[in-house]
């Protein structure tokens, strides 16, 4: 189980998500498979458990999200839990 800190209560999910994007992808999110920028992808769903948007790359047709390429990949955590 993730350890939850009091700060979790202070940050909204949206704030946490934006923080994660900046933290993991300081120069912007790119496709971890082919390197295409986020503008080349489209959002196709929101992962039910973690509530983060999932993107499908238009160039290579692979999917990714804010956690792709990080230690949190595949763990399905909510942004406020990771922060
Ligand atoms: Zn791609």
How would you describe this protein?
The protein is 24% helix and 16% strand. With 83 residues, the chain is α+β, with helices and mostly antiparallel strands. The protein has one domain. A 3-stranded antiparallel β-sheet has the order 1-2-3, with no helix packed on it. Strand 2 and strand 3 form a beta hairpin. The longest helix is centred in the N-terminal third of the chain and has 12 residues. The protein starts with 6 loop residues before the first helix and ends with a helix. Zinc ion binds next to loops.
Provide a compact summary of the structure.
The chain is an alpha+beta fold and 83 residues long. The protein has three helices and three strands.
- In terms of DSSP E residues, the strand content is 15-25%
Identify every distinct bound molecule in the structure, by name, code or SMILES: zinc ion
Total E-strand runs = 3
Q: Please state how the strands of the largest beta sheet are arranged side by side.
A: 1-2-3
Low-confidence stretches: none
Number of domains: 1
Give the CA-based shape.
globular
Largest β sheet strand count, sense and barrel closure: 3 strands, antiparallel
Q: Helix/strand-derived class?
A: alpha+beta
From the alpha carbons, calculate the radius of gyration and give it in angstroms.
13 Å
The helix/strand order is: HHEEEH
Compute the average pLDDT: 87
- Quote the distance from N terminus to C terminus: 14 Å
- Helix content estimate: 10-25%
Oligomer: single chain
In DSSP terms (H or I, runs of 4 or more residues), the helix count works out at 3
